[in-house]
Write a structure and sequence with these properties.
Strand 42 (742-748) and strand 43 form a beta hairpin. The longest helix is centred in the N-terminal third of the chain and has 17 residues, at 30-46. Strands 1, 8, 9, 10, 11, 13, 14, 16, 17, 21, 22 and 33 form a twelve-stranded antiparallel sheet that branches. The protein is built from 16 helices and 45 strands. By secondary structure, the chain is of the alpha+beta class.
Length: 782
């Protein structure tokens, strides 16, 4: 391999660097002069590469071509040969990396006096880029080395970076790679923000404020999987991912750049050392992969790697550790307040539906919601009434998990000062605590507690033990569980800032809770959101984006089952904001903000929104959930409740697919769009708050496909409209592993019936759904 210098092409040792000689043409014959001129021109042509612009560093595979500009090494080309699409925006070159020092400005490739590169040996091909000479940045010993290689298949590029010679200068973050993205029509960004979201207007929104904006998501945490995808629907796509198996802190970010540009980067957050680090090298690779398709194709690429990782083998479901009653739960009632408004409605619904019902119970605790945490005990109705009510519910078969936020402490709560809790709160680099305000009525601040401290873990575990062993609850809902924070308090005993210490702390907390409660019962632990790193720790994951229209600004993001497409078979997902009423009001909040009619029924015009939310949960394989349920709804909102219970019964008849199955590509169906009114109303809606309404466009029917553990395939369908729908379906290999010949059976709430057969390796049929109908078509071998 020949080393090239970006500052100009210089001959490597041993190369002929001779320049053409000059001649006095008067001293030779005309014929000799012509020969001399000819030799001069030949020699000049041979030297042209030395006189032209320096050769740009580049590498090729059968599927990709990557090229870097020769001055500083910015990515200038990321060519997907299969689609002839270049994902890199060569007109908006970005520094390939930046390093932010804890005690000074960021350093980048432009600060290097020398940039060089060489090809790497190996069949897959690769390149090494080296930056050195950072004297002007006061880092004379710094050398930055990036290596980019191709996978054997060629469509995946693998990126590594290392910084040597930082000396005593601690590093706060390292951003690499940084890729400016070329514009495409129908450009879509898909990000696994918990269950997953996509945005079809990312470039526009990032430039909407007059200056370029930025979105970033932390992993492990709000980012449930370590990836992000940009693509044109059905066209070229780029998946940026990391193959970190240690749950090290990092962020994925998208941001606007000049001239309406758009870029992706990964932010690595190493532990911050007061003595500096001789070397900083992330213990994983970044993978940039070209693909064709949509978010599901990106999920399938990620799944091929993800299912081989330890968090799948060690997941609670795969190890058979999930409590049986939790797996068997047919529906959840998410109600708030004292037991008469929670347990009794659940029992009434169970009697009506004839299926196991469990309770997702908020506001049982003695403190005001989002204000007095963690002063949960005793319950607000008293210990004895609470225990008796729960015992009666258990006799009827109703189980309950109760709310306990796993990281917030109210800064106005009496225990904040009494326990000296501030000492164990998450700290910023300046040593301060960042107040978090959720309660819009009293504006009471809360602080995030540090998962790396034994004090907080012990405090929370003792409270959970009191609820399970002392009160008899069946499990704990750990709010804000699938999130992590950076903490810079040197007194907490964990690495500062980055690292994997947050997940290690959560592991210790989870094991402590289970150990304390095992003598009474195996405790169920559920958490907010979803995340691959939490699969070994949580029994269930609350996935609320099925109803994100109730809380998110319209026209920006829409939910997709990104996480489900990868991990459904080893996770248990539940949850829905879907409600027929206005929100309740905590009796411990200020009385002057209380609505005159809490739990007042919403207008019937929002029935389609209710059906949409429930249909998403059904086709995406979640346990059905209804919020703010009252027994009177069975009569007052009969149509909506009949629809909900229909989904519950069909799902229960198709558990091998919708509970235990692997998520396949959703079939494309010809379902027209429907314009429906949407309601947006927070839990903090007071007496003067009106329902915020907007129009949403949704498909009249939803569909998904599943593979059961026995290998059979099924399609789940729901008609959310008031009119019948009909469409053609055809499932075959390679996307759907159907048998060569088989039968098609329709599973509905009335049972299973034959719906046809096939013999050519492709199951095709016409699906006809009545208004509000849900069914599952199972394709089984003869």
């Amino acid at each position: 391999p020949v080393r090239r210098e970006g500052a100009g092409a210089r001959a490597a040792p041993g190369e002929d660097a001779a320049m053409p000689m000059t001649h006095d043409l008067r001293a030779i014959s005309p014929r000799g002069a012509r020969r001399a001129v000819a030799r001069f021109l030949v020699t000049l042509a041979a030297c042209a590469p030395l006189l032209a612009e320096p050769e740009a560093p580049a590498i090729d595979s059968s599927a990709l071509r990557l090229r870097f500009e020769p001055e500083h090494g910015s990515l200038a080309e990321f060519l997907d040969k299969a689609t002839a699409h270049d994902h890199a925006d060569a007109a908006a070159l970005l520094p390939l990396w930046t390093a932010a020092l804890a005690d000074g400005p960021a350093v980048g490739p432009a600060d290097a006096a020398r940039f060089s590169w060489r090809t790497l040996p190996g069949a897959e091909g690769g390149i090494e880029l080296v930056w050195a000479g950072f004297d002007n940045a006061h880092l004379p010993d710094l050398k930055v080395t990036a290596q980019i290689r191709f996978s054997p298949a060629g469509a995946e590029s693998r990126w590594k970076i290392a910084l040597d010679g930082l000396g005593a200068r601690p590093l706060r973050d390292l951003r690499f790679p940084r890729i400016a993205i070329a514009r495409q029509e129908a450009e879509t960004l898909a990000v696994p923000v918990w269950m997953g979201e996509r945005c079809r207007r990312a470039r526009e929104l990032l430039h909407a404020g007059g200056r370029p904006g930025r979105w970033e998501w932390e992993y492990p945490g709000l980012l449930s999987m370590q990836c992000a995808a940009l693509y044109r629907e059905g066209g070229p796509g780029l998946l940026l991912a990391s193959n970190d198996t240690g749950a090290l802190r990092k962020l994925f970010a998208v941001f606007g750049i000049e001239r309406n540009g758009f870029a992706l980067e990964v932010v690595h957050v190493p532990p911050l050392s007061s003595n500096g680090e001789a070397r900083c090298e992330p213990a994983y690779e970044i993978l940039a992969t070209a693909f064709r398709g949509d978010w599901y194709d990106a999920a399938a690429l990620y799944r091929a790697w993800a299912l081989e990782q330890s968090w799948v083998r060690e997941s609670r479901r795969r190890r058979g550790l999930t409590p049986a009653w939790l797996l068997d739960t047919a529906l959840w009632v998410w109600n708030r307040g004292a037991s008469p408004g929670v347990l009794e409605p659940a029992a009434a619904l169970m009697e009506r539906a004839g299926v196991p019902v469990s309770v997702f119970w908020h506001w049982w605790h003695g403190c005001a919601y989002d204000t007095g945490f963690p002063e949960y005990l005793p319950p607000r109705e008293g210990e004895e009434p609470f225990r008796r009510a729960l015992a009666r519910a258990h006799e009827k078969g109703v189980h309950a998990i109760v709310y306990m936020n796993q990281r917030l402490w109210g800064m106005t709560a009496r225990s904040w000062a009494e326990k000296g809790a501030e000492r164990y709160a998450v700290k910023q680099p300046d040593g301060g605590v960042t107040p978090e305000v959720y309660n819009t009525f009293n504006r009471a601040p809360c602080a995030s507690m540090c998962m790396g401290t034994e004090f907080w873990r012990g405090t929370y575990a003792a409270l959970a033990e009191g609820a399970v062993r002392g009160l008899g609850v069946d499990g704990i809902y750990m709010d804000q569980a699938c999130s992590s924070l950076a903490c810079y308090d040197p007194g907490h005993g964990h690495p500062l800032g980055g690292g994997a210490w947050w997940m290690e702390g959560f592991r210790r907390l989870e094991e402590d809770i289970r150990a304390r409660c095992i003598a009474t019962k195996p405790v169920a632990l559920a958490g907010e959101g979803c995340g691959e790193a939490w699969l070994p720790r949580l029994d269930a994951m609350l996935s609320l984006q099925v109803s994100m229209e109730r809380y998110a600004a319209p026209g920006r993001w829409e939910p997709i089952p990104f996480f489900h497409a990868v991990y459904h078979a080893c996770a248990l997902l539940y949850g829905n904001y879907s409600s027929l009423t206005r929100p309740p009001y905590d009796e411990l909040w200020p009385a002057e903000f209380a609505p005159a009619r809490p739990l007042e029924l919403l207008d019937r015009k929002y029935a389609a929104q209710f059906r949409l939310e429930q249909a998403r949960a059904f086709v995406w394989g979640q346990q059905p959930t209804i919020a703010n349920f009252l027994p009177s709804h069975l009569a007052d909102r009969k149509d909506e409740m009949d629809f909900f219970l229909r989904l519950v019964r069909v799902r229960r008849a198709a558990l091998p697919y919708l509970r235990d199955g692997t998520f396949l590509r959703p079939p494309v169906i010809d379902a027209q769009q429907l314009a429906v009114p949407m309601s947006r109303l927070s839990i903090y809606a007071g007496q003067r708050d009106a329902v915020k309404e907007f129009e949403g466009k949704v498909p009249r029917a939803l569909a998904s496909a599943w593979a059961a553990p026995d290998g059979s395939v099924a399609a789940a369908l729901v008609n959310i409209s008031d009119e019948p729908v009909a469409f053609e379906l055809s499932l075959g290999r390679p996307e759907y592993p159907v048998p060569r010949a088989g039968a098609i059976r329709k599973i509905s709430e009335s049972g299973a019936a034959d719906a046809g057969s096939y013999t050519d390796g492709r199951a095709s049929w016409r699906a006809e759904l009545a208004p509000g109908e849900a069914c599952v078509y199972a394709i089984v071998a003869r």
